[in-house]
Amino acid sequence: MIFLLRRIAFYLFTAWAAITINFFLPRMMKGDPISAYLQKNQGKISPDAIESLTTLFGLDSDRSLWEQYIDYWQLLFSGDLGRSFSRGLAPVTDVIASALPWTVGLVGIATILSFLIGTSIGAYIGWRRGSRADLVVPFATFFSTVPYFWMGLIAIAVFSSALGWFPASHAYGKGTRPGFTPEFIGEVIAHGTLPALTIVVASLGGWILGMRNMMVTVLDEDYVTVAQAKGLKPRRVLVNYAARNAMLPQLSSFALSLGFIVAGTIVMELVFSYPGVGKLLLDATTAKDYPLMQGLFLVITLTVLVANILADIAYAALDPRTRQMEA
């Protein structure tokens, strides 16, 4: 309980700092959303409408910066992240909600698969260190060093253009009506398979190499030697003694990866024209849509914090020494 309370207090302070920075940062940038919106709609906005937009975006000059800060917190607690002027003044929450499931569904599944597969392969290679299994490491590392956009273009050229196995772009076919139907779900899976495979292949090397190196270190520990001396089955020593302890540092990296799932893979979404959060963030930056950028940064930050909280809890559950040190 002491461990949990201290970690929660730390992350609450971090969340407050991140939200505060998220409030002040756009106001420190050159220009403002009202000026950018007026440049796109020259001669189409009346003075009364400009005044209404100024109030809507929380940039009313009659209110001090502190009052705007308080208003910002009140809007956050009410679930209002403002209006996106690049999306027809649609609520930012609705814009993010429309793109979030695509990114979480694709990048999330791909990240979890790459972690599970890479960690399992790395544990086996570390257990069989010095054998032919070590040859997997340079191959996997090579694919991790290849620029992702190049790997994505090669995948499209081979598996889409040449072989015709998978669609080349978008989340589903043109003219298809979204819905929970077998046809639509099949199209989503078909369009998402190729970008998901490229994400898995590109990230496998890091998980394999990290787990393999930790296994080599853990196998020299005394408790592994004692377990082997007791005559325990090699599989039990591998899973319960070696891999369980070697996987602890991997959890922190995995938590960060889970947190940044919401940010999406911008390059992947550009290469495959996938309608995710990464592409939405790039479009918002290009259009200088500050409310949408602010909302996206906030969602990404809070997601990373939640992922780290879950990683700390899992770390403490697997390693009792962490709880004892905090206590």
Q: Can you tell me about this structure?
A:
The chain has helices at 2-28, 33-40, 47-56, 65-77, 92-127, 136-145, 148-162, 182-218, 222-229, 234-246, 248-259, 266-271, 277-286, 290-318, 320-326, and strands at 83-84, 90-91. It is mainly α and 327 residues long. The chain folds into 2 domains: 2-91, no CATH class; 100-326, MetI-like (MetI-like fold, Orthogonal Bundle), CATH 1.10.3720. It has a two-stranded antiparallel sheet. Strand 1 and strand 2 form a beta hairpin. Helix 8 (182-218) crosses helix 10. It is globular. 29% of the residues are buried.
Shape: globular
Biggest sheet features:
2 strands, antiparallel
Helix content: over 70%
* Integer-rounded radius of gyration: 24 Å
Number of domains: 2
Short description:
The chain is mostly helical. It is 74% helix and 1% strand.
Features:
mainly alpha, MetI-like fold, 327 residues, two-stranded antiparallel ribbon, 2 domains, 1% strand
Give the topology, please.
Layout: H1 2-28, H2 33-40, H3 47-56, H4 65-77, E1 83-84, E2 90-91, H5 92-127, H6 136-145, H7 148-162, H8 182-218, H9 222-229, H10 234-246, H11 248-259, H12 266-271, H13 277-286, H14 290-318, H15 320-326
Antiparallel strand pairs: 1-2
